[in-house]
What we know:
287 residues, 12 strands, 47% helix
Amino acid sequence: xxxxxxxxxxxxxxxxxxxxxxxxxxxxxxxxxxxxxxxxxxxxxxxxxxxxxxxxxxxxxxxxxxxxxxxxxxxxxxxxxxxxxxxxxxxxxxxxxxxxxxxxxxxxxxxxxxxxxxxxxxxxxxxxxxxxxxxxxxxxxxxxxxxxxxxxxxxxxxxxxxxxxxxxxxxxxxxxxxxxxxxxxxxxxxxxxxxxxxxxxxxxxxxxxxxxxxxxxxxxxxxxxxxxxxxxxxxxxxxxxxxxxxxxxxxxxxxxxxxxxxxxxxxxxxxxxxxxxxxxxxxxxxx
Length: 287
């Protein structure tokens, strides 16, 4: 029985890939969102670490031509760019650590330019929990400085929410404070919809509230039954195939289409992402 289930799963995945190749999925994507979906390198982190060319081939076979790299996987930015160019794949966003953007900024800028990225993204701020008003305001000052520096180098800085920023504050949240204090000329945002939903926010409502501030988006889904919190942490197995979890993705995608979001990326942290991503693409095809 287990062998038959595995065979059926493989056949289902193959059917989805053939369907995409026929053009049906690509047409649906164009109706659903302004750009076609990309993927975050973290989704295939284990595969990239051992076989980057093969992983890029697999991504291209899914019809995906846009990657947000958040790790160079012990490769040079030049070698990654060469491999992407050969396959007609582009990198639109380069994710780096807070430490690197603060201490190795010249290298970050150089690598982002080599990769061809427009955005440099940070997804975590070192802090003592819970996040507080002083940290939020100090972070905005630092982000303004980073963003101004990157802008002068032809790049755009973006911050990716991770859940802990939504501590309640004066009828709103500390994320609202960060939005207010961060200069839109220098600081853009990438909304991770799971890390907005998990701490109790409505990601579609958040996009509508800040229609011009979000430029990038991570699309993912949270397993049914998982109760969120403000820690910015949940086991990776709680990332599930799009459309099978708690998030109202139709609402989110509708809001995103009317916003300033330029690129959206499928991110699946589950160890089974290799098999889940084609099913997530099929879900998007049906929306």
